Prior knowledge:
Helix content: 25-40%
CATH topology: Beta-lactamase
CATH architecture: 3-Layer(aba) Sandwich
Distance between the termini: 17 Å
CATH class: Alpha Beta
CATH superfamily: DD-peptidase/beta-lactamase superfamily
Strand content: 15-25%
Number of helices: 10
Radius of gyration: 20 Å
Number of domains: 1
Shape: globular
Amino acid sequence: MQSKAQIDQVLRQKSEAKEIPGVVAMAATGSEVIYQGAFGKRDLSKDDPMTADSVFWIASMTKAITCAAGMQLVEQGKLSLDEPIGKLLPDLASPQVLEGFDAKGEPKLRPAKKPITLRHLMTHTAGYCYDVWNGDMGKYMEKTGFPSIFSCLNAALKGPIMSDPGTRWEYGINIDFVGKAVEAASGKRLDAYLRDHMFAPLGMNDTSFKITDSQRQRLVGMHARGEDGSLAPIPFELEQNPEFHMGGGGLYSTAADYIKFTQMILGKGKGNGNQLLKPETVALMGQNHIGDLTIGKMPTMAPMYTNDVDLYPDMVKKWGLSFLINTAKTAEGRSPNSLAWAGLANTYFWIDPARNVAGVILMQLLPFVDAKCLEAFAGFERGIYAGLDAGSGQRAA
Length: 397
């Protein structure tokens, strides 16, 4: 396959030039893996080569999995997309909107104009934010000593919202509350629920909130990009005994495991021989749920963790339950109405139902949307579509 050599070359070159520390990439149709490659090092301070079974912190790629779990409970009538979620999660019963700060720098809060729903949470329209993209939240945290979501402390879920529910799209901690809703509706801790109803049925045996001994031997180190462009290993690990499991960003996984999740979405809810969701539920998850709202630029407030995020700046983008939806064909060849998202340490996936293909590319460095990582991702994705196009040409001939 010509495109495999093409992709290998892009990823190998980036790794050997130390533009990225190392990478694992994998693509599949609904029925078979069509590409996998591993290049570079797991950790630039050690000799271990990257391998296909290397374990990464997948951060916000956790979100789609948590929402899929939530949709299982919606199907069973245990959760509702449009009931006020405060009935189930009392912490969300009377949300307060942060309207800015008074002359003394004290936060000004007012009650929200309407209740938060599960649909608001799954679509990032509940009003919650992440402080790395919201300066007011950073100021609020400084003023009040409020903990970061990465503390995995329940107290981190008791903050204000930035706008009234349903009025704007703002990326934030919403899916952590979807995780709490899954727990409340199922009576299980999130790790146990996902293991029993998502990971075991899909054969995702290498995906968990807690790093196992076997995973630790294959764990990829975190790296930071310096201002001069150079890469250095940095210590990084999520809290291993958290007060709550971060449904918005807590999972560790492998490319082979995550591709199984994407194949379940391509398979209209069926993966590894098991039907996890109804076809109509998967179709619903892939539709625009934010109406006329759009997804704009996310300017960074924490350059160490993230660059400005502005994916496909010339295209209208929508949000499903819980995926980014591109409304036009991308330069790499991704069909309109494909589904995608990413994780803070430069992990990315996309699912293209129209072409029956999905891809996962995993790296482990900060800040997010690193230019070299995006080049590696684009080269990988272009190669996959080139291969599909060549293949369909041969079949047609």
